[in-house]
Amino acid sequence: MARRPTVSDIARASGVSVATVDRVLNGRLPVREETARRVYDAANAIGYHAAALIRRRIEQELPQYRLGFILQRPDQPFYQAFARELDHVVNAAERFRGTADIVHLDTQTPTEIAARLRETASRCRAVGMVAIDHPAVTAAVAEAREKGVPVFSLLSDFAPGIRENYIGLNNRKVGRTAAWLIARTTGQPGTPGRPGTTTRPGTASRPGTASRAGTASRPGKVAVFIGSHRFHGQEMREIGFRSYFREYAPGLELVETVVNLEDGDIAHEATLDLFRRCPDLVGLYVGGGGMEGVIAALREEGMAGRIVAICNELTADSRAALADDIVAMVIGTPLERLSRELVAQMVHAIENGPAETPGQIFLPFDIFVAENI
């Protein structure tokens, strides 16, 4: 019969004294959190019979935080995935006992957003939110700050100078990246790259090479979709998108920006109308929500390989569109890293107070094409 692990075994495995292990087990004197966790990890690893008791004692000493998260519509797969990741990160936290209070917005009206923020801030220690930039939202953020509840802007910035920090992508770079691919794959002169790699207008692909989405080499029109002009992040994507073409591919004509209100049905009809109005369309970037409707329209009209289409966030729809040559590239948000960074920043603000100079935390974005999904 195997010998049962003892307190001395835990002490050796964790590198602390027997007296320290005893304090952790019995809660007689305070022990640093790092030391207590090291003792628990050692006890759990060697199969100590009271490892669960050690964990409970550690948890009893941890602070309890209710963290609020206000996301966009619950029917959007991206925000469903975001909510799951946030819930997982909060529940798996080791430095505190947390509850993820997740709220989804049904509309984009400033009054609803402000009301939901006030409600959430009244019961949470900190709030992370995806929202438009509007004076009513800024006022609600200021109220929360005055009450000691820090508010973080996620994915799209708002209330600069009042919110705690922005955490998300560098949206101007996202827009320029989308423009870069369209310019490269339509072979426009002036596209930066290695000497000799830019395709001249009118030239064909190399003999024997397969054509991927939108590899046409011709001048034409390019369109960009956004959900709302009030989303600062989408505005920055549009700015980056347009600035790239002005600088490097002036031969492509950008049509008026299409606003789809983050709605798939509106995006679908707007895309079909765009095809009718612009038969020489060669590139399309969906800089916000509603990509499901755009993808559906591209499929219906048989646009695979004829238009360089780019969208944001890898979902079941965009993954299938990549595989079927409907979409050339998807720019993705690293949700796991974003959630971990956000929760860490929220806890830091709760425990240490607001930042003296709130800023922006940019995360690297993911690039998906047909060959890496």
Provide structural commentary:
It is a single chain. The protein is an alpha/beta fold and 373 residues long. It has three domains: 7-61, Orthogonal Bundle (434 Repressor (Amino-terminal Domain)), CATH 1.10.260; 64-168 and 335-363, Response regulator (Rossmann fold), CATH 3.40.50.2300; 171-332, Rossmann fold (3-Layer(aba) Sandwich), CATH 3.40.50. Helices cover 44% and strands 16% of the residues. It has 13 helices and 13 strands. It has helices at residues 7-14, 18-26, 33-46, 51-61, 77-91, 110-121, 135-146, 171-185, 232-248, 264-277, 291-300, 316-323, 335-352; strands at residues 64-71, 97-104, 126-129, 151-154, 166-168, 221-226, 253-254, 258-259, 281-286, 308-312, 329-332, 360-362, 366-368. Strands 6, 7, 8, 9, 10, 11 and 13 form a seven-stranded mixed β-sheet that branches. The protein has a six-stranded parallel β-sheet with strand order 2-1-3-4-5-12, sandwiched between helices.
Annotation, overall tally of beta strands: 13
Helix content: 40-55%
- Strand composition percent: 15-25%
CATH superfamily of the largest domain: Response regulator
CATH structural class of the largest domain: Alpha Beta
Shape: elongated
Distance between the termini: 51 Å
Chain-averaged pLDDT:
90
N-to-C SSE series? HHHHEHEHEHEEHEHEEHEHEHEHEE
Assign the CATH architecture of the largest domain: 3-Layer(aba) Sandwich
Low-pLDDT residue intervals, each spanning 5 or more residues: 193-216
What structural category do the secondary elements indicate? alpha/beta
Q: What count of helical segments does DSSP give?
A: 13
Cα Rg = 26 Å
CATH topology of the largest domain: Rossmann fold
Q: Report on the biggest sheet.
A: 7 strands, mixed
Number of domains: 3
